[in-house]
Amino acid sequence: xxxxxxxxxxxxxxxxxxxxxxxxxxxxxxxxxxxxxxxxxxxxxxxxxxxxxxxxxxxxxxxxxxxxxxxxxxxxxxxxxxxxxxxxxxxxxxxxxxxxxxxxxxxxxxx
Length: 111
Description:
- This protein is mainly alpha-helical.
- The protein is 58% helix and 10% strand.
- It has helices at 3-28, 45-56, 62-73, 79-92; strands at 60-61, 96-100, 103-106.
- The longest helix is centred in the first third of the chain and has 26 residues, at 3-28.
- It is rod-shaped, with a radius of gyration of 30 Å.
């Protein structure tokens, strides 16, 4: 058998055996804990407003909502964006009511 053919065959066997050895070592080592399902990293602006209104149990003006979001979640939320989002939810009948100019509350049926 020519030396270069013999060397090629031995290289293939060596690579195969190394891969098998890595697989065996991986199986022997303690398996890492299964990754827990990740919870969403952050709440949406609407979800933050919902949490604030739920705790307040009273209608809040957008300025108060923004201040409480800032103090609770340490985030600055754009006023126009939040008003727009809440207004859309109000028009769809989804969780929120508009009780006055730029004042929002939770619908009574929302727990």
